[in-house]
Amino acid sequence: MSSHKAEPSSKDPAVPAVAEDAIELEILPSESGSVLVARLKQWTGVDRAIAFTVMARFWSAFAGVVTILLIAKFLTPSEQGYYYTFSSLVALQIIFELGFSFVVLQLATHERAKLTIFDDGHIEGNSIAHARLASVLQKSVRWYCVAATLMACTLLPAGIYFFTTHHNTATLAHAWRLPWIILVFAATATFQIDPIISFLEGCGYVADVARMRLTQAMVASSLAWSALLLHHGLFAPAMVITGQAVVGLGWILIRRRRLIFGLLRHKTHGNQIVWRSEVWSFQWRIAISWLCGYFIYQLFNPIIFAYQGPVVAGRMGMSLSISGSIGAVAIAWMNTKSSPFGHIIAQGKYRELDHLFFRTLKQSTIFLLAGITTFFSCLLYAARHYPKYADRVLTPWAFAFLLLGVISNHIVTSEALYLRAHKQEPFLIVSVIGAILITISIYFLGRYESANAVAVGYFLCSWPTGLMGSYIFITKRRAWHMPA
Fold this sequence. Notes:
Layout: H1 14-22, H2 32-44, H3 48-74, H4 77-90, H5 94-97, H6 100-112, E1 115-117, E2 123-125, H7 127-165, H8 177-202, H9 206-229, H10 236-255, H11 257-265, H12 275-297, H13 300-308, H14 310-335, H15 338-346, H16 350-385, H17 387-390, H18 396-420, H19 428-448, H20 451-480
Antiparallel strand pairs: 1-2
Helix pairs in contact: 1-15, 3-9, 3-14, 4-13, 4-14, 6-7, 6-8, 6-15, 7-8, 7-11, 8-9, 8-10, 9-10, 12-19, 13-14, 13-19, 14-16, 14-18, 16-18, 18-20, 19-20
């Protein structure tokens, strides 16, 4: 097991952020008081970035339970269907995002490896890397300003048309309109902030971004609960995204304003990233994979809402929200490694890369299995003793198939993060096949069968594509890391 001692300058908080994620910390015998804590950290893989990310995911999981209880108490089954379908439709922003935020993170990571970033926003190191880093931010900000305008002009009328056309009950004929309008504008604001946050994460501020996301989660949940408690529950999704936008913008302006504005004003002098030749061959694959993700994860609610009504869509939506929250907590271990993976790859330390990846995969999968087992036990108990609440989700046997799909998704997502850190996208074929199979399954089973059947179809589609992804991971890892 390799070990490295890092001696970064106290003026450079970005360096320890990267070092802490990318390498293991050495345990010194003289630090007897902290040996147990250090060993526990080493065994679990929980560094500052993961700690804040996991706390954010745990908060989201806790908040999700509270939100579910509030929804069950303050929303009718039909309103619950609108609540979750709102989120699925606004997720269409992925069409305009085109995987840009992930590409920005990877580009920033590779250029940042040649630079030193100080707390006051001052940058030292390779002048060409400095110019290229600035161009990444400048190009991404310009693109997102245009894309955000297109997104708002598309999502707003599309949502109005969808909800006007499908299952407008007398009591909800107009109640959804204002919440939907506010939700779209809040999502547009958040959309423009996301690339800057991804860029800062790529620059090494992984722990800081994770801490900010914890604050986002807490503020967003509090605003959503307020809306539910005040009997304006359909505004809750908009309040969630509004909270995220306010906290994200505030953090950028207060904590990283000098760095961001300095890079936006920095003259690239012909050393900018040439997107067409350097990035586009990678990004178009990421963009298609991201778009496929919508059909894999978000198409359930609109299809079921359209053909089986808001009540059934509400059950599916709440079930997907719960299973997704469990998976999100587990994948936090791996998500915080996207920036360190790119940093290690830029240095050519493939053995260190593999050690970090497989250790993190093991730790996160163990946690995922523990979380799934715990939740399913609670679901069985609720179905027996609290049927009023259990009736708001799928039946336990159908829910089990969703949870099995979460396991497959966790493994293939982890493998994809590893390979994409090489600025390559070999998972395109997996994403396309998975999207086609799951879309066909959701459409026919959602239209002609039941939500329970949709859950089974999802499981039957996700595992074969997951095995295909693992095969690609094994072959590409072997080919890319083969000694010359």
